[in-house]
Amino acid sequence: MDNSAQAAPQRSDQPDAVGERHRLAEVARYAITLDQSDPKLDLITTLAIQAVGAEIGGVSIVHQSQIWLPSRIGVDARHVPRAGSFCTWVVGAASEADFFEVEDARADPRFSANPLVLHAPHYLHYAAVPLHGARGYLLGTLWVMGTQARRLAAQQVLMLQGMAGLVVDSLELRYCSDVTGMANRTVFLHHLQLGLQQSAQPQVLVGFVDLMGFRRLNDVFGRESGNELLRLLGHRLGEWAGAHNLVAHLGADKFAFALFGEHAGHVARLDGLKQLISEPFTLAQGGAQVLHARIGVNYHDIAVPGSAAALLDAADTAASAINGSYLRSTVKEYGVELLARSQMVFELQAALDGDVRHGALAVHYQPQLNYGEGRLIGMEALVRWQHPQRGLVLPQHFIGLAENTGKIYQLDLAVLRQVCQDLRGWRDAGLPVVPVSLNFSRRTLLHPQVLGDLKLLLRRFGIDGHMLELEVTESQLLDTLELVAPRVAAFRALGLRIAVDDFGTGYSNLDAISSFPFDRLKVDRQFVNGVAGSERVAGLFKLIQGIAELFKAELLCEGLEHEADLAWLAARGAHCVQGWYFSKARTADSIVRVLGCMRQRCAAAAPLTPPQLRQLLDNC
Ligand code: C2E
Ligand code: MG
Ligand code: MG
User: Ligand 1 pocket test: which of 415, 439, 503, 581 has the largest number of ligand atoms within 8 Å of its C-beta?
Assistant: First the structure.
């Protein structure tokens, strides 16, 4: 829950607050239609009811002026909206107290007109414990009600308070960020959805705040200072948004907000937001820190039906489309061009889920050759998206999207599965199979299930780990070396070979790459293409070749296109290549033909010369 949730809601039974009471009742009614009861909380509520001999009970969460009932027992949905006003009293009138009781609601002018009291079965007794979160903010109440007027014994109050402690633990675990204590994504989406359905405001602006370079800050100043910064920022955001809007901490360095009101007022508020993020934060251990963020926003008319999750996704998409400098905060609005992007994300997910109306992913293979020995030494698996309207879509158009929208693991795993299946099929057909290289994104490399899933696939298709190679780029390594290096070692232990991909394009941090073992260095295309005609490129190539020798790794030259470059490489003894000069990436069917031709040629005594190799690949 964010700090602004501490603001006392308006008292629902004051004469000038009749409209507000009605609104709260409406909110609670929507809460019922939206939510399933939470089974763990239900268990605690049931115990609380039994412990004090009540008849009904529930957990009410207060967020700004809204009430949410994630647990309700013995409550007819009809009664819940009316009971909501009891909770607002506890929060408003007794936020400092640790217990609130109405012994006989008939005799209490605040509640005597409440429909729960007025109508059968006439709930007269109400007892509630305010739920105070670990950082002092008020979450809501655990409440019970009964039809008999009475006063709870001290022992019963204690029990109710004990149960409330359990509810707080459970709520904080599920609905709050453990770092800032603010509402998490679930709560944000829930309240936003309520707002979309019942807000009296004409419009809403949904925003996604993604801090830039925060990982580095964590590295430099330590995780505790990082968390402190997040808490301070969360507090500023809560104050900036105000009590009638929403703010949440989605996790890590990402926040969300929703501002209800006229769009006209939002532009100036966004300027204020950029400013408050960039104003220095003073840390407890001393020193000031400045933050910058990518802020994606999505304007929405409340009259138009909308899904909270889709609005937040759109704001997220807008934020991730900002190619930001780390030096200032930037706002980007979700518009037509991003709509197309979202459409693509939607279609990609559908294709990954097997919906053929949006095409299918296909794995193509690009041969890797040792032209000195005249043979095929491997293949790189390269994903493509065969789309009904767009045609064959290359990975540069969708890998980034998949990475930014959390779909990359599913994609990389689909490629891995296809590769295992193809390898098995080729082997069963008696073809001379060669190892296949895979490109795993960082998220895939670090995914908690990746090793388990890989082992399962290897076993299922009867594939030896030596038949696979994993390409890890330098940037993947450097960003999170301490996480990636042990992962890479675990893959190696399964027999997979490791290649450093696109070598030379990053920092070429020898210290970093020397800290984990690898088998192959793939020289990036920019140090191969044109190497024969440029002294500068040639010099850089020689450097990289020296590094491969130093690490006793095989050197594989990517992107070979020209004969002159081939001759230059041959003179330097760089014989392993992958490039269009010999072959572009091919379909699996085409690879079957290549392997068939190779098998025939292997029977011949003399190794193939480069022109023969090229011709063979051209012809099959
Ligand atoms: P990469 O791993 O560096 O793959 C090599 C890219 O260079 C491929 O582009 C390949 O077609 C292209 N290429 C090879 N030889 C030549 C040449 O002689 N000239 C030119 N101009 N290009 C050449 P592609 O297939 O478009 O793949 C681009 C990138 O997409 C790959 O770069 C890789 O980073 C990524 N990628 C491909 N498949 C996957 C996948 O299954 N998962 C993930 N996570 N990434 C993938
Ligand atoms: Mg690669
Ligand atoms: Mg590469």
Answer: 439
Contact 558, 382 (CB under 8 A): no
To which H or E segment does residue 403 belong? helix 399-404
Angle at 202 between CA 199 and CA 203, to 5 degrees: 95
Residues of the chain with CATH 3.20.20.450: 349-619
Nearest CA to ligand 1 atom 2: 439
pLDDT digits 0-9 by tens, 39-72: 889 999 999 999 999 999 999 876 655 677 888 8
Give the amino acid at 122. Answer: H
User: 401 CB under 6 A from ligand 1?
Assistant: no
CATH class name, domain 349-619: alpha beta
- In testing the pocket of ligand 1, which one of 558, 578, 583, 584 has its CB within 8 Å of the most ligand atoms? 558
Please check whether the domain covering 185-334 is classified as CATH 3.30.70.270.
yes
Question: Is the distance from the beta carbon of residue 559 to the nearest atom of ligand 1 less than 6 Å?
Answer: yes
pLDDT for 581-610, tens place per residue?
Answer: 999 999 999 999 999 998 887 766 688 899
- Return the bridge partners of 71, or none: 59
Closest by CA to 145, choosing from 175, 111, 170, is: 111
pLDDT digits (tens, 9 = 90+) for 24-43: 334 333 333 345 678 889 99
Residue 466 CB contacts under 8 Å (≥ 6 apart), including other chains: 435, 495, 496, 497
pTM above 0.70, yes or no: no
Q: Is 383 in the pocket of ligand 1 (CB under 6 A)?
A: yes
Question: Which ligand is nearest to the Cα of residue 503, counting in written order?
Answer: 3
Q: Homologous superfamily of 3-175 in CATH?
A: GAF domain (3.30.450.40)
CA of 446 to the centre of ligand 1 (A): 21
In ligand 1, which atom is closest to the CA atom of 581?
A: 18
419 lines ligand 1 (CB under 6 A): no
Torsion over CA: 194, 199, 203, 206 (sign): negative
Whether 557 lines ligand 1, by a CB cut-off of 6 Å, is: no
Question: Where does CATH 3.30.450.40 sit in the chain?
Answer: 3-175
Domain with CATH 3.30.70.270 in the chain: 185-334
The answer, yes or no, to whether any atom of ligand 1 lies below 6 A from the CB of 583, is no
Q: What is the largest CA-CA distance in the chain?
A: 106
d(CA 465, CA 463): 6
Q: Helix 610-619 crosses helix 588-603 at what angle (to 10 degrees)?
A: 130
How many angstroms separate the Cα of 585 from the Cα of each of 287, 390, 393? 54, 19, 13
Which residue is closest in CA terms to ligand 1's atom 25? 382
500 touches ligand 1 (CB under 6 Å): no
* Nearest ligand to the C-alpha atom of residue 393: 1
